[in-house]
User: Fold 8-amino-7-ketopelargonate synthase from Parageobacillus toebii.
Amino acid sequence: MKKHIQSELQRLEEKTQRRMLKNVSSSDGTWIVMNGKKMLNLASNNYLGLASDERLIEAGYQAMRTYGAGATASRLIVGNYELYTRAEEALKKWKKAEAALIFNSGYTANLGIIAALIGRDDIVFSDWLNHASIIDGIRLSGAERYRYYHNDLDHLESLLKQASPHKRKLIVTDSIFSMDGDMARLEGLVTLKKRYNAILMVDEAHSSGIYGERGEGLVHHLHLQDQVDIQMGTFSKALGSFGAYVVGEQWLIDYFINTSRSFIFTTALPPAVLGAIEKSMEIVQKEHIRRQTLQFHIGKSATHIVPIIIGSNKQTVQMSERLQEHGIAAVAIRPPTVPEGTSRIRFSLSSSLTKEELDWALERIAKVGREIGVIT
Ligand code: PMP
Assistant:
């Protein structure tokens, strides 16, 4: 076993695909100290700067003071603190949904939702660039899987046409693609799901807090909330905390409570996290200025996720190392996170950055890019 694993690690090393953990000693939403060096943080998902917000910290602290450091059991045993009830009520109001359920993380939510919804006799249609947690949920479900080319509705329709009309069908997509930063064609997906009698699930991990009048997500922004069957999202990105949610009709949520294994067989979230989640939903709905500032930073880019696709692993790692030397936290994203040959630096913007900081960073990114030969 050891020999085999060591040779696998060696193989990753040779492909410049071996990952190493970095040590973060402080982070304030804008600046991060990583491996002892202070850098402008262009790599986090803290899109609205809420992770270090004093109000979230205080709410988390108060919840921990009242209910303890740990939840002591799963939700169906004795871990379902009233904090959950409060947060889920707030979630329903925010998303104008009939029912809501909090999961421990986005990863486990996708696993649990998808594997509960579909099984061996069903068919799932999944965008080529969907997040790994969706892919793993599909694998776990054992359903027949079709991947449609990224955002290619014609391809999706041709696959839907071939599928047996008698089988249950699920279409699943990220709303904003995590590594490319482009948006799913949600209106077209709604048309197709109706035409072929499928249900549609949208993962709002990267759009919750950012799109929609009160940060409800891209589905609301496009006024599709009554036509998307399942909206899933996370509290771990723009909402600055941890955990995930799913909203939908009551029968769906009742079913997840009874059958989602990643919901049932795990300890409930720590009270501190639930306190922070509740506070972050309150802030995100009313502090429009955060969304407006982020929108201003986005400028002509598609969204707040801005990748520079380089291709080779080596050059991508080189670029990220050079950027870090110049004081910019930018991370090399390589396979299997992205397809072979599309390694990239994934920049992410945050409302907590200033224009001056971004100009400063842009100058350095252009300089390093030119030196390495990836920007002309
Ligand atoms: N879905 C998408 C689209 C994601 O990008 C991520 C996280 N990168 C997740 C789900 C998982 O969320 P979490 O980090 O809360 O587990």
